[in-house]
Write a structure and sequence with these properties.
The protein has three helices and no strands. The model has no long low-confidence stretch (mean pLDDT 87). The protein is rod-shaped, with a radius of gyration of 28 Å. The chain folds into two domains: 30 residues; 39 residues, no CATH class. The longest helix has 24 residues. It has 83 residues and is mainly alpha-helical.
């Protein structure tokens, strides 16, 4: 839902007062608050993306299990303490 804010110059009004009037109108309309609230929101993942992510994690788990069997990784080791 888009809300437009329109300001018209009246008489011999200077640019600073027009800008101040515009800022007050934007603030009263709540536009900035609405835009800032949406700034960091994320979309829900689609089913295809969820499936792709799940398959990727399954593949990675299998690779790690294979590396543990071959002795390339110490099981349950903290990060940075691999051979």
């Amino acid at each position: 839902m888009a809300i437009n804010v329109e300001i018209k110059k009246t008489g011999n009004e200077n640019n600073i007062s027009i800008l101040r009037k515009f800022s007050k109108r934007v603030q009263s309309a709540g536009l900035l608050q609405k835009v800032r609230s949406k700034r960091y929101s994320e979309r829900n993942m689609s089913e295809a993306v969820k499936k792709k992510k799940a398959l990727k994690s399954i593949k990675r788990r299998e690779e790690i299990a294979m590396m543990i069997k071959m002795g390339k990784i110490i099981p349950n080791a903290k990060r940075g303490h691999r051979r």
